[in-house]
What we know:
heterodimer; A: alpha+beta; 10 helices; 4 strands; B: alpha/beta; six-stranded mixed beta sheet; four-stranded antiparallel beta sheet; 7 helices; 10 strands; globular
Amino acid sequence: MKRIAYLVKESMTNIRLNRTTTLVAVASTAFTLACFGVFLLLYLNLRGVVSSLQDDIKIVVYLHDGLSAQGLSDLQQRLKGEREVATLSYVSKEQALADFREQFPSEYHLLQGLGENPLPASFVVTLAPRFRSSEAVRQWAKRLTNMAGVAQVQYSRDWIENLATVIGFIELGAIAVGSILSAASVTIIASTIRLTLLARRDEIEILRLVGATGAFIKVPYLLEGAVLGAVGGLLSLAILRGGFDLFKLQLGPTGRFLGVESWLNFFPGHVSLLIIGAGLALGFTGSLVSLIQFGRASA
Amino acid sequence: MIQLFHVSKYYDRRPALSDINLLIEKGEFVLLMGPSGAGKTTLLKLLFGTERPDDGQILVQNRNVARLKASAIPYLRRTMGIVFQDFRLLPKKTVFDNVALPLMVQGTSTFEIRRKVTEALKAVGVDHKKDQRPATLSAGEQQRVCIARAIVNSPIILLADEPTGNLDPHLSSEIIELFKVINARGTTIMVATHNPQVMAQANRRVLRLDQGKLVAE
């Protein structure tokens, strides 16, 4: 217990004695994580938007005009048995015409000229959550077209796939930017710890001579790095929160984004903790790198 | 207690120590004499495990230091005390905290630390300075603090590298007397020095090193 108290006290002393380098390390970690956090916020929010849009994905299964009542019943039973189907509703030819008239009243006279109702009956299917990916939708639609009584299958594939591509790019961007900035942050924290190690070289030597183990010497510096990183993570969250609120405030009164601001959410609790954890890990890694280099140099 | 068998150490292919053989019994007080560059410090470093011999074997308390794993060295050092010419005290810590350092690294309890540090400081006569920083002490007092740190965990062996190098003759004399008292309690002592006054005052067994060779006893 005494030893742990000593190690914690030593790491806090290190931080206090090296205020400038400590501030630089905290600021650089905060900046790194804030940059990464911007991508992460964008990614998570877009994914949220896509997810809610995907909830609305409907597949329209148009039926052959000559389909018998028995054929219709068989197809309905078969579709209900499909694991991809969450809800299924039947739209008769008459209902389709009524819907058309309601949605496009000015165009209705074009259909009247044809004499008979040209609109096909259909089933409108909403998909179970597990099968809402663009690939799953594509596969299932392909299978549907081969079913007896099905004339055509229609769904909005393009925008699903486009959104998936955009999210993929954002994900890649977040990984690339995150990796580069993380490396920079580790380097800066490693330099900060190295300065501390150099300033306390004599003390480390004395500790070695009085029988301190490697772990006893290293722990305060690892703690210092971890604390710097975690504080940097916390600061980055504060920056991101401030920026996020400001952005939402700017969007709100303009009304230019069709209420999109109501869809925007800040990180949930566990992601915020993960960001602080990432800062802690960066700081710890920076210290470790520095200690390994210092150990080699003083061996 | 300490045995060296054909020990040699080279720096940049130059011999710092050549074919050293010696035996130091438990409870002995030995002076290691020789001019600067004779290899005195190198010999102490080998015993303390901060350097490894290029040839030969070193037995300290029946442990072969030459073959000891790096992870075992700290535990060897906990059975030894070392005194330096330049004291090597931590300037930002008090006298008490400096002396407590060897106990702290071993995880000794607060109560025991207080008891042992007070005892060690009393033994060297600087207990009244325990709350001061080293910079406020005289050279002689700083060396006493350094000795207190070396004896605080009751070491079996005490190694001193030119302990009187920065002290005037009067203070040197005091330090040697202190070593004699510590030795009388059973601690094996090896003092490296080039100072004939120390040799005369200590009046103990002398090992002479010259250009890395043990030339006489």
